Amino acid sequence: MSTQARTSSNKVTINTLRKLYNTDEKITAVTAYDFTMARMLDSAGVDIILVGDSLGMVVQGEKTTLPVTIEHMLYHTSCVTKGVERAHVMVDMPFMSYQSSFDLAVENAGKLVKAGAQSVKLEGGEEITELIWYLNKIGIPVMAHIGLKPQSIHSMGGYKIQGKSKTDADTIIEEAKLMEEADAFALLLEGIPLEVAQEITNSVSIPTIGISSGPHCSGQILVSYDLLGANPDFKPKFVKQYTNLNETVTQAVASYCQDVKSGQFPAEHNSFHQNLVMVKTGSQ
Ligand code: KIV
Per the count of CB atoms within 10 A, which of 23, 100, 141, 152 is most buried? Predict the structure, then answer.
């Protein structure tokens, strides 16, 4: 079925995603943080809209995702879900919303679902297997995020490609299998060599969604601002910019400023007239 035809069909559920995976059709995913962007991505036919904790960096201007809180995620989830009719809405559980206690993790995942999430994404490995299993049991599907885990930036020593050596690659491959056994419905593979991503994709029976992990995954995700070229200072090779939003917006706003300064805008046709209908008063 074409992307166009699927655009007019019903909501994308985890069953839809499984069907795409089983028919070898690639799964598309993009991040959104607000109503307007979510509405545009949804009408473009994207399969998954992720309310990513990358919002810390691209919306809040932070250096990492670590300052993002569950309250931030709830707020942005409620904005995004209002703009989405078809796409599957997945939401990141932010740093320390699931690491300190099992009960807190379950409670926070539940809050995200109440705010409109259809599934949640958790970064981790062995330490989150029990949580994934339980969330799944209570009706909250989980995507497990492995490889480069931005919430572990300090223990990784920076945003570095993971699994370059045979030993590190084997650890990630083992982690992927553990996540599948724990009942994760999909894997997000970030920042791993394409050979490792391919081996994972071939050795699990759940979809793998890649970012900076090569072409062999079951699908691909990008941060919306990156694919739209919003940040002129961020052009890593794993990103393909489909437009230059930075240039388009800068030029459009500069034209607006010029028009206002020169009196070209607003013009008469952008304005409203006084109501000239005379109202009869008294005995006149
Ligand atoms: O938060 C995020 O945007 C992510 C990316 C990997 C897409 O998790």
Answer: 141
Q: Which atom of ligand 1 is nearest to the CA of 150?
A: 8
CATH number where 129 lies: 3.20.20.60
Predicted confidence at residue 282, as pLDDT, reads 58
Q: What is the pLDDT of residue 4?
A: 46
Mutate to test the pocket of ligand 1, among 31, 97, 222 (most ligand atoms within 8 A of CB): 31
- 255 located within any domain: no
- The 3-state secondary structure of the chain, one letter per residue: CCHHHHHCCCCCCHHHHHHHHHCCCCEEEEECCCHHHHHHHHHHCCCEEEECCCHHHHCCCCCCCCCCCHHHHHHHHHHHHHCCCCCEEEEECCCCCCCCCHHHHHHHHHHHHHCCCCEEEEECCHHHHHHHHHHHHCCCCEEEEEECCHHHHHHHCCCCCCCCCHHHHHHHHHHHHHHHHCCCCEEEEECCCHHHHHHHHHHCCCCEEEECCCCCCCEEEECHHHHCCCCCCCCCCCCCCCCCHHHHHHHHHHHHHHHHHHCCCCCHHHCCCCCCCCCCCCCC
Mean pLDDT by 10 residues, the chain (284 residues): 50 98 98 98 98 98 98 98 98 98 98 98 97 98 98 96 98 98 98 98 98 98 98 96 98 98 98 81 55
Report pLDDT for 7: 43
Candidates 175, 180, 190, 199; catalytic one: 190
- Asked whether residue 280 is domain-assigned, the answer is no
Per the domain annotation, does 279 fall within a domain?
Answer: no
Residue 106 domain boundaries = 3-247
- Total domains present in the chain: 1
